[in-house]
Write a structure and sequence with these properties.
homodimer; alpha/beta; FAD/NAD(P)-binding domain; Polyamine Oxidase, Chain A, domain 2; Guanine Nucleotide Dissociation Inhibitor, domain 1; 3 domains; 22 strands
């Protein structure tokens, strides 16, 4: 059976979102009359993803009342399981965890969610420039694609980027000694000046696409460096390889039962009555000492508010008083990347018997990166391919059938004809999600960090900003989202003191 | 008397906006009950600036009914007069018109609004690099700042940009033969590679700041080229000098009585009952064959809709069905520039007697560009200085008093101590305007035109996009706004056919 999960299916039905039905919608879509007296709580949290639920639990732990308003009819934000049947799941959103993501790892332990290694046995495949070669991911340098000129040049470039990143203060990238120079150019410009072989350029393109789901031309070099700087322990030591690698990197481990278990675990702790689903926030009105948060189901009056949605999504909220100019301008300049996550399900991971890890590095269109995304016991076999950046923008406008055919053609080119006949096919285009507006994360084009960076976490009176895009350490990742939630909760509790 | 016009003053009182009171607010701020039956019209136009009023008049001319919904309590958008007393006005928004802006010039003639030349007699001042020299604007090349190395290099760079621009199709810049290369870099990157003297780099910085009110690092080279290409006759021949020059350029002429007369003239033709002020649009719901437009004063049901607000402003509207992903993504990637327009009023334009035109080219902070903005008869004398791009972002966070002191210090440095004692001082920060969110115009960072450019004018079912940001010829200018209004009206009339 081949099956395309549409946005509607995933959000509106229990079939698509395993476990999400645990929290039923709290109300229908009809707007509540606006004149009803506001309901009261100490803190309102906007968004029931990792950041929002973490913030809410921190507020509760401090003995204060909290309500989480969630636009969707489910919790989880960018985390979403998809049931494969017979108790097996895959994720159609964020899924991995790796070393130094200690907050996420600690929470998983607390919640009793086990991890297991991403399948990484056997050879990787390099399928680019008309070549198709296996290579080992277990050398002393990790996986080195078999491009004799390109790979060493890419590794030198990565070492150089890591050194540059080490000079970027993760709390204030705009204060790096060379911030003006680095925020004045795209990553593409730096790449063209510092990598000259087609192979190295391809590998750097793939790194940018794999981490930000945008193109090297879209993103500021300074943003890339700040992100690298944050990909490690809070004290420093971030590296691009930690962002892109499986072993030793951000793709090293997966969660048994799917990453959504983390967010469902938080929601369960918080309790159903504190989470209001189907409640998109339309308007936030601040008066002396209080904030009215108007959503489709009610108006809540709080003493502090934490907003966790991506900056681009918060641009739809009507703020009274209006946002400070630099915040309003930041929201015009903090776009989300573009990723379509495509997975094909087979009876078994047949590529393993062929000595393949399921990981591909390619210049193909539309899928240039793949993973073996099978459940822990390898039944069923799941191939995961990402369509990212430019390819995601182009292929999003094609039909679902065309897209599926193109993805399966790539899979078959990489893994043989058997890959063209999956028993199920699942895709998720996060750019079409109105309450996320693109994955994996928001990024900044040139010039934005320099002139608007200070507005990223600066509160708007009693409104505090959280979410993966506001994180310093592990910006854009589940770990960073959790850290941002705790930071914003502490700020909010300050308003109640 | 020294006077700072605040946003509140300009929008809320008749004193600030001469003539704007001709159209009283149609309703208070209280939301109307949502369940009232919608009012009906053929076309709803969102925004009563030049584009919106032009579109509405074209609809009326075709024998169809139209309603214009305007968020502010005045018409005019980025056009706004400020009364100096005794019948004299200056503009705190857009004001100039120049050769090849034939649509605007033709409309002004139709409405009986005369033009007069921007004061351009005597010498310009070059105040940079510690030097302060006069130079003539009337040589065969136009104004050539007295930097022996920098000026020729800047002129060569400008000639090169014009040649590159000539290869950019104004309707589809992303189809230029070198589009990928040019949309992969900031203008800053191109500048550093093609201009090597500090003087040339300063002049190119000033050109970008003066035209886009952003920094060279913020904007895509391809966007700059497309904009240059559109600065001329529809058939071609656009040039950067036409964008930045007074004589022969976009600053050549002014409107007697202020540019707002154009927009008030259009509004008068359209008639008060067709324009609903104080009516910010919150929600647009499309069903088969009709569109409901929900604003604070009513719900209007139309068969077609024209939206003229800048893209960044339309990101606040709730769309049902939700915007196509590429349109939603475009709105995350189309920021407005940052300009604060500062004017000091004196009994007379005393610099004229000193042989000065009032135009300065400088590396000062915060004012690097000035004009003589006196009324036609030179009474009173008005100096106009712009704070643009980075300076506008920094100085917007300072107090109004600090800003005024800094501007007057610049004026005194340029024109002598007398400039520090104006009888009035007027400033307008367009970045703080929630219904514009920045001036002069929206621009695109690298990568946006390539991957999202096709969404700029593509209708969302029965919703059509207009406004200066959607123009092809004279994008960002009054002339382009008018052209966009007519184009969108034609599209809307197509929905009624």
């Amino acid at each position: 059976m081949s099956r395309t999960v549409t946005r509607r299916g995933l959000l509106g039905t229990a079939a698509g979102a395993a476990g999400a039905a645990a929290l039923p919608p709290s109300a229908g879509a009809k707007p509540a009359p606006r004149r009803r007296a506001p309901r009261r709580t100490d803190v309102v949290v906007v968004g029931a993803g990792l950041a929002g639920l973490r913030a809410a639990l921190d507020v509760v732990a401090a003995g204060r009342s909290v309500v989480v308003l969630e636009a969707r009819d489910r919790v989880g934000g960018r985390l979403l399981n998809h049931a494969l049947g017979e108790g097996e799941v895959i994720e159609v959103g964020g899924q991995w965890v790796g070393p130094t993501q200690d907050v996420l790892l600690g929470l998983a332990r607390e919640l009793g969610v086990d991890t297991f290694p991403t399948y990484d046995q056997g050879s990787y495949l390099y399928a680019a420039g008309g070549r198709r070669e296996r290579y080992s991911p277990t050398g002393p340098l990790g996986p080195v694609p078999p491009d004799l000129l390109g790979a060493p040049e890419a590794f030198l470039a990565i070492a150089q980027l890591d050194q540059m990143a080490a000079t970027v203060p993760v709390e204030a990238p705009w204060k790096a000694p060379r911030a003006a120079e680095w925020d004045s150019q795209t990553f593409e410009t730096w790449k063209l000046a510092n990598a000259h072989t087609p192979g190295a350029r391809l590998l750097l393109d793939l790194a940018i696409e794999a981490v930000w789901a945008c193109e090297p031309r879209d993103v500021s070099l300074l943003h890339v460096l700040a992100y690298i700087r944050g990909a490690g322990p809070a004290g420093g030591g971030g590296s691009l390889n930690r962002l892109i690698n499986t072993a030793g990197g951000a793709q090293e481990q997966r969660f048994v039962g799917g990453s959504q278990r983390i967010v469902l675990g938080l929601a369960e702790r918080l309790g159903k009555r504190r989470v209001k689903l189907g409640s998109p926030v339309r308007r936030v009105v601040q008066r002396k000492g209080s904030v009215d948060v108007v959503c489709d189901t009610a108006t809540w009056r709080a003493r502090s508010v934490v907003v966790t949605a991506p900056p681009a999504v918060t641009a739809s909220i009507d703020w009274e008083p209006w946002l400070p100019a630099d915040r309003a301008q930041l929201l015009q300049r903090f776009p989300q990347g573009n990723a379509i996550k495509c997975q094909a399900v087979y009876d078994e991971p047949f590529w393993r018997a062929d000595g393949l890890a399921g990981q591909v590095t390619s210049d193909a269109d539309p899928v240039r990166i793949t993973f073996d995304n099978s459940p822990p016991d390898g039944r069923p076999g799941v191939l995961l391919g990402f369509i990212e950046g430019h390819a995601a923008r182009v292929w999003a406008r094609r039909s679902a059938a065309d897209r599926k055919a193109a993805v399966l053609r790539c899979f078959a080119d990489f893994f043989g004809d058997r890959a063209s006949r999956p028993k199920a096919y699942v895709e998720m285009d996060w750019s079409a999600e109105r309450w996320t507006r693109g994955c994996y994360v928001g990024f900044t084009p040139p010039g934005v960090l320099l002139d608007f960076g200070e507005a990223i976490r600066r509160p708007h009176q009693r409104v505090h900003w959280a979410g993966a895009e506001t994180a310093t350490v592990w910006n854009g990742y589940m770990d960073g989202a959790l850290r941002s939630g705790s930071r914003a909760a502490a700020e909010a509790l300050g308003d109640l003191a």
